[in-house]
Design brief:
The chain has helices at residues 21-44, 50-94; strands at residues 3-9, 12-18. With 102 residues, the chain is of the alpha+beta class.
Length: 102
């Protein structure tokens, strides 16, 4: 069920439609993150145009997303390696001749 929500970014309100409670939460968390960074960059670079500040925010968020994507790829690769090692280990156990009884 779609829900109309309003978020505020940099003091400007935007009407959006969220298709789920999870999407609404994501919109609100993203807006909060952007506003936090806007505040930081506005304080750090007083007198800068809002377009410049928003460019810094976009760059910062993009760097974060790219870094996270690379970390996720590395974790997925490691998980694949561990799965292969585990499968090989279990295959070797299955292929061992039975122990002799005395």
């Amino acid at each position: 069920m779609d829900q109309k929500i309003t978020i505020s970014i940099g003091g400007k309100k935007y009407a959006l439609t969220a298709s789920s409670p999870e999407q609404e939460e994501a919109y609100r968390l993203a807006a909060s993150s952007v506003n936090s960074l806007l505040s930081i960059y506005t304080d750090k670079y007083p007198g800068k145009d809002m377009t410049d500040i928003l460019s810094f925010v976009a760059l910062n968020e993009s760097i974060g997303a790219i870094t996270l994507k690379k970390r996720l790829e590395a974790v997925e690769k490691e998980a694949g390696t561990l799965k292969n090692q585990t499968d090989n280990y279990l295959d070797n156990i299955d292929n061992q001749p039975p122990a002799e009884t005395r």
